[in-house]
Amino acid sequence: MKFVxxxxxxxxxxxxxxxxxxxxxxxxxxxxxxGEKGSDAAVDWVYSTNKYIRSxxxxxxxxxxxxxKIISLIGAYKGSELMKKKVVSPSYVQLYYLAKFERQPLKFxxxxxxxxxxxxxxxxxxxxxxxxxxxx
Length: 136
Known about the structure:
This protein is an alpha+beta fold. The chain has one domain (22-127): Roll (Nuclear Transport Factor 2, Chain: A), CATH 3.10.450. 46% of the residues lie in helices and 29% in strands. The chain has helices spanning 2-19, 25-37, 39-47, 51-54, 57-74; strands at 77-89, 92-101, 106-113, 120-127. A 4-stranded antiparallel beta sheet has the order 1-2-3-4.
């Protein structure tokens, strides 16, 4: 009986661990897709985490266009690093990433929200003002 309970308990812990997505996994996946498939695919993927943002085709297109324009000036993507994690509450987090490119870096800001049991993108911003160190 103890063996059955131990297996059942292990299964519950395993299920909980996988259903509770870490907020960090969203930017990690974004940059993984970015490196493998490009900026358009990465933007499509990260927007897909929030059904309300996903449906805003104009905003999606604007972000893709601006990002491609900047990338054409700064060269190939070389990786990313977490700069800062600001926990506003257990359900609202801001993650600041340095995205490395051949010519210069970009700062990406992911605002993530967890309304129930899964994290989603609330806002995505990027700019080239990395050295200023401003974290709004």
